[in-house]
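Many introductory courses stop at the sequence. We go one step further.
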Amino acid sequence: SAVLSLGFGAAAMTPVIFQFVRLPRTLGCLLAEKYPGTKLVVGFAETATAIGAVVTECFSPDCVYIHTTREAVPGVSDWVAFLEEHSHATEQNLAGDNLAQWIEATETVIFVDDEISTGKTLVNMIEQLQQQYPQLKEKKTVAASLLNRVSPENMQKLAAAGISCEYLLKLPELDYSARVSAITIHEAPAPLPAAVSLCCQQLTCDAFADPRKGIPIREYTLNCEAVAKEFLTRYAHKLPKEASVLVLGTEECMYPALKIGQALEESGVPQVRCHATTRSPIGICEDAGYPINSGCKLGSFYDSNRATYIYNLREYDAVIVVSDTPLRDLCALEGLVGALPGECLPQLFYIHGGNTVWCPKD
């Protein structure tokens, strides 16, 4: 299933305004037409943190966007915890402080993921939410995804639970495990860290808002666009001319990276790509036709004891790392720099969650 979702997932290398914006926006337009009274959209960590935000943009500006998280988030008193049984990282949490009022205010609650394979996790989660928030039973619930490979039997179970399915692509019923069993893969190796020499400067705009706590989508979009605007105003002149630029999100922090990448494209930067680090341990294979040909195992920007991964990196003139981590150490950044291909290091920028930018020294 990981291989099937590579074209849409955090591990993929994709043009900023192509798959990771246009496809979710197509899904969002479909949903907005069918469920115009939606005021609450829930995305799933990791990949759908960005997909869910782009989908939510298609609804009214006051539509609340919130996504599940695997991080420890301060300032939340009520958590809904559940298990994603088939996942490599099973524990998911949803901030519940304001869920009751958001559920009351909407006709439909839409749950967004990149791919739905069985629907079991979603059924369990919605049943758990209905127990905690009985008013949810009176609302329409929708499972939305780019890909859907739920069997007819499980589709009936979803329908019996009152969950409608919406998607862009329905995959055929095949034994995908058997189809990939003959492929020889290996784990991504850990690179040698490379020292970085950067100076730290404070931004004047607000730091990234946290959708893990829930936020009206227009407020979140404007917040990310403000950071992007200030970054371009202060640092665009430092980018090499005709540069190829990588904008790299960190784990659940993908949507801000997309907005910065989009701003770069709109400003005339000719080649912009968007990646994200991910917890997904996807096998690497150099065979022609296999989508993941290279990768590295890195320390997390959020937890030095956590392994994360980055795949299919190539050479760039500049790399902009975008994170909302509260941690200020640069160990994860040094590991990432060690993973970058090429003999010469690119121009490096690190937009940090503490509302600072680490940038090249003048």
